[in-house]
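Practice problem: predict the structure.
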Amino acid sequence: MQSSPAVVVVLIAAMLGLPALVSGARAQFPPNETINVPSLTLTDEQFLNGDTANGIPVTLKGDLQFPSWDEHMPVVVLLHGSDGPRSSAASQWRGFLNRMGIATLRLDSFGGRGINQVQTDQSRLSVFAQIYDAYRAVEVLAARPRIDPSRIAVMGFSRGGSAALYTSMRRFQRLHGPRGARIAAHLPFYPSCNIQLVGELDIADAPVREFHGASDDWTLAGPCRDYIARLKAAGKDAAMTEYPGVSHAFDNPHARPGNPIRSAQTSRNCRRREQGGTVINVETGKPFTYSDVCVVFGPTVGYNKAATEAAQAAVKDFLTIVFRLN
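Answer:
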């Protein structure tokens, strides 16, 4: 079995009696891991009604990256969007959070299910799937000795942003939430908020910080603005930051400004509501499908450096307080 460069450096340093070099090598090469997250694939109705008995078992992979050899570290679970786990936004935030001294788990909700993307066909996976996946990931992380179970946050982007937002709902936590752990903060980026859920104003006592481009035409800012305002009116610790003139995926450096994704579906024009454990199209009164006329194609994306840096500054200030960082 071949030794990694980090191990070789540590062994040589130890043989030469160089503790400082050993320490430096350990700090330079923290042990990153790929971990398994047991989950279920549920339909919308199964998730909303708490029917896990008929779910399909699946094992997901997560890329757990540590910034140092410290124990009891805070961690952020990163939930990708419709484009899949290699999203540049998730990768950028992973590096940023690691530099803050925060571990990250980049969770792949697609690979274990034989999916590489859903942006061209959103019906391939329930919109609630990543909520359930996030709960299971939090559960797995909380049991690991190097993770502080009181300092686990969830951050997501687009479809993953919706999961980061709605993991806060007490109803969903009662039905599916992590055993023996809680989520300390929710950080949704440009989620879809145009669905009215039963009990959506009853969220847990963990802060929600939402970030959105005001010119987003994939997941509109307006419904999120309304939802966050209603949460605040209900006395919840929720806030939304909007960036004028900024598009979807503004924190993805590979998203060329003004670039339409012509094959991508968006339900931005759809008004949806949960009714009797089913998501219905408010206009038709029938169960919502991605064949409904309100579903259109060709939303745009666009990286914005100023908005990204502003969001990073806000997240840094926020997590420094929530995670009690030095």
